[in-house]
Amino acid sequence: MATICALAVVLAGVAAYGWHVGWFTKSTSNGNTTTPQTSQTSALPRADVPSPKKNEPAAQAQRAVSAMTLEERVGQLVMVPLLAGSDPSSLASTITDEHIGSAILIGNWNTGADTVKTATAQLQGYAPAGNRLIIATDQEGGQVQHLTGTGFDTMPSAVEQGTMSADALRQSAGTWGSQLAAAGINVDLAPVLGTVVGDRASNAPIGALDRDFGLDAAGNAEHGIAVIEGLRDAQVGAAVKHYPGLGAVSGNTDFTTEGILDTTTTLGGAEAGAFDQAITKTDPAMVMMSLATYQSIDPNNPAVFSSTIIDGHIRNALKYTGVVISDSMSAEALSSYDVSQLGVKLVEAGGDMSCIGQTDYVKPIVDGLNERAKSDPAFASKVTAAATRVMALKIKMGLA
């Protein structure tokens, strides 16, 4: 959901937590508490990640995940949607029964911050006390600002943000982030780091909507870094999107399967390099994958399902150990795939979290992940590794 997906987290219950400069983590002397494993959990594979020091978030995450059932691990890999106007109670059983770890607010939430704060608090009430929800929204600015009304500034488009100095943009992003945090949002699925390489009006997902900074790749990277750091100043995580860029396609992956083959972008090129620079310099909370296909990189898979891009480049070349999230799994670009295999294919490629824009996609994706993990130990190990990355992010944020 190139124009919809974004991620954020409620801060309820973190009054006792301390925020570290650059990243935010829970300050506690008791980082070693674990829940005793049952015979069911002890038989599950452990995360395929290096063994970190005892009190690092990754080590804490390993201990937390080792105490989870397989179904609980799978639940951490799914982000469920709450549409504007919907009662949060509509997600109660889904969050509880499927052990869901994240939610996203989408649509036109135009009645102000108090409404959002009430909704996010209610959603958090369905989560376990020791494993709070990540709650997200899409707050880019301009035509893509899902939360409006009293308590939320009207944000300029990204193109307008591109005319600001990096320092001024960081300060503004800090203000916008503070408004999100006050409403219970902790991760914003922004900024867009795609670079439009042709006619802007012909680039439906980005240029036509002024979602990029309107600069060259280097300028887009600089301004993207400013947004990431500004959000972090407000204790809000960022998700750079849509890797490796939607600036060279004509079709919007939300709405079409046509015009979504990129024939020019390469790994190591300037356009993908803008993302790489932001990732290596800021270690953002998340990297969101594009649903387009990149002929010069992996012509057989959209980026979201490409092990060449995720495992090969983002994980191995860039050494990124954070959360890799999909663009909306319910987008038209993926309509030819079996819904039950969407989450499976993301995890197989090295990704973590399925962002879902339609509620009827949730159960098939969850069921597909569970069924594959129960029958395939190697895939279950990938689920464990992915859940560990999600939990490490939550621990850094003080959510777990």
TrEMBL record:
Keyword Hydrolase: yes
Protein name in UniProt: beta-N-acetylhexosaminidase
InterPro entries for this protein: GH, Glyco_hydro_3_N, Glyco_hydro_3_N_sf, NagZ_Beta-hexosaminidase
Gene3D superfamilies membership: Glycoside hydrolase, family 3, N-terminal domain (3.20.20.300)
Entry's Gene Ontology molecular function annotations: beta-N-acetylhexosaminidase activity
Organism: Bifidobacterium longum (strain NCC 2705)
Bias-annotated ranges (Polar residues): 28-43
UniProt keyword terms in alphabetical order: Glycosidase, Hydrolase
One of the GO biological process terms: peptidoglycan turnover
Catalytic activity, reaction form: Hydrolysis of terminal non-reducing N-acetyl-D-hexosamine residues in N-acetyl-beta-D-hexosaminides
